[in-house]
Amino acid sequence: MDFQIALLLGQDGITNGAIYALLALALVLVFAVTRVIFIPQGEYVAFGALTLAALQAGKLPGTLWLLLGMGIAVAAIDLALAVRRGTARRIPAIVGWNIVYPAALTALLWLVKPAELPLPAQVLLALAVVVPLGPMVYRLAYQPLAEASVLVLLIVSVAVHLTLVGLGLLFFGAEGSRTPAFSEGNLEIAGLTISGQTIWVVIASLALIVTLYQLFERTLYGKALRATAINRVGARLMGISTTMAGKLSFLLAAAIGAFSGILIAPITTIYYDTGFLIGLKGFVGAIIGGLASYPVAAAGAVLVGLLESFSSFYASAFKEVIVFTLIIPVLLWRSLTTRHVEEVE
Amino acid sequence: MQKKKLVAGLLVALASMAAQADITVGVNVSATGPAASLGIPEKNTFALMPTTIAGQKINYIVLDDASDTTTAVKNARKFVTENKVDVILGSTITPNSLAMIDVAAEAETPMVSMAASARIVDPANPKVKWVFKTPQNDVQMSTAIVEHMTNAGVKTVAFIGFADAYGEGWFQEFSKIAEARKLKIVANERYNRADTSVTGQVLKIMSTKPDAVLVAGSGTPAALPQKTLKERGYVGKFYQTHGVANMDFLRVCGKDCEGTFLPAGPVLVAGQLPDSNPIKKVALDYTAKYEAAHGKGSTSTFGAHAWDAGLLLANAVPAALKKAKPGSKEFRAALRDALEGLKNVTVSHGIVNMSPTDHLGFDQRARVMVVIENGAWKLLK
């Protein structure tokens, strides 16, 4: 192996690692705020990419029907609760977000021809379809169980994952799709050709990480999320709605997932079930960060990307074995170095 | 109370009468899970099959095994114990089909598999007496590739395949034949269906400078190594396996797949076959039926394997009906004998001549070499 190959492998590893890092951040965020180990994170990656591909092919994406259906389900539950509790002032917001918004989006996609729009508009439309699924999934699957143990929430996650993968197969079929690159240009640095999309992935990931940091440090909502993550009861006593925090964290997780999918769709073929493996690798990164530290999780995810890239060169048949075995020494090291306090349940 | 009993009794009598009169076919396909791109066209094909053969009504019971071996066995057990099927069709993939052989042999029920591996009908296994299959063996396809490579002056070849039974099976068959023909395999790499990058494997392949690369994958995931190789500036020949023979592969691979060679069943290029070829008519009949139901360009060779299983039944059932009534052990044995005795049956993938040692029955006519030209399959003469 010469220096040139090492550089190419490093570049490939960092590109994949940047995506894993985004997913690792989303997983840490969701776990810290809601204690949910969010296995379906990867599904948003696949949904984001495939929704964009469907829009570009001039078809109405199946996720739109999911949005409509889940919107109606959420609205039905929330309206019944609002009527029973006599909180009529919430009704316009419930109807607006869960029925009017999906219906308006459907009408918009029906009227304009998404295939003819410029790429940024298509990306925004795809995000508009997929991202609201995050809080809706939280409302339907997790909110009724918000106080349950981590194990119960994990079991719910498995169920949600299987449901979403099955729906993905129904919506998009078994074969994969690719989308055109954001920019066709290549960059040459020191004899090394870097594709435009790689640069897009790395820059967008960095920008997203900085934005998240600003969100947590500077905004009231970000601070509310951090407060909930540190102490749920304390946050509630301070007037922070844990339901709102849960929905917000799922909204961010869905946005990060869908955007990651849109970023990598031009580099690789995305299938309805691609997301699971990507999400799992992000999860390995998140575990390295102990499901608590954002910077360590991001660094861990980049490490996973690099390890994957180099092991695919040396021993391609054992690549996944090598990547997932990484979790064992990490867990050993963590359990030896940190004092574990048994969670009261 | 009396009335209820009477009605129940009548229903049971009716049900048993129906079971006696009709032929029950248990279909097990992998319509979800990793093999879904193969299983879905097969499932669609069963919906187009004739509902009567020689005046007998045929009941199809279609189950999905989710590409999972345990579920496949469970489905097969359900067929033989609950549904009392006369014949089992399936499964889509090799591991599932191998696992179902035991059930079929134990219940003495004939089974027609739609999976590729030659091991499914290996005559050395006594249980295989009950098992038949419709897709060509990997050996036949490998021979076609190696032949084409040596004729084209290829001396060194790199192999990259799925890290599963498909890739492993191909490597074993291909390496054996390649060795015999003095073709040198300079790299042997693996990747996963859902991988987002194969840069590592591709760099390794490029460092060995092969004359040709063989990609052993199925469906659209097989496009990834080829696209990455092109991206990195590889200029040698590309070979794919018949696992990619559907329109989605052409859509995803686009211009990077121009000039790629692959072996395939004749049904893929049915329209280009000479009129003298008897397969043409049968294959065109299938594509016309399938495209009428699912749109133009929607046929794949996988669905045709299912159709061929149906054609085998259509040819074997009349002979079996002469010997016994459907639903009985005797009928199942007669159906098995009839399947084994099939001679010169034209199906969409070739011409079948079964024998006690050959439960596939295909010869050289069951495969053609195809090249991808202008985003379409073109028959190589």
Question: What does this 3D model show about the protein?
Answer:
- The complex is a heterodimer of chains A (345) and B (381).
- Chain A is mostly helical and 345 residues long.
- Chain A has a single domain, classed as ABC transporter involved in vitamin B12 uptake, BtuC (Orthogonal Bundle).
- Helix content of chain A is 74%, strand content 2%.
- A two-stranded antiparallel ribbon of chain A has the order 1-2.
- The model of chain A has no long low-confidence stretch (mean pLDDT 89).
- With 381 residues, chain B is α/β, with parallel strands linked by helices.
- Helix content of chain B is 44%, strand content 19%.
- Chain B contains 12 helices and 15 strands.
- In chain B, the strands form 4 sheets. Chain B has a 6-stranded mixed beta sheet, sandwiched between helices.
- In chain B, a hairpin with a 2-residue loop joins strand 14 and strand 15.
- Classes of the chains: A mainly alpha (345), B alpha/beta (381).
- Chain A binds chain B through residues 5, 8-9, 12, 15-16, 19, 166, 169, 173-178, 195, 264, 267-269, 271, 273-274, 276-278, 308-314, 316-317, 319-320, and chain B through 32, 34, 36-37, 39-40, 160, 163, 189-201, 203-204, 207, 219-221, 223-224, 231, 246, 248-249, 252.
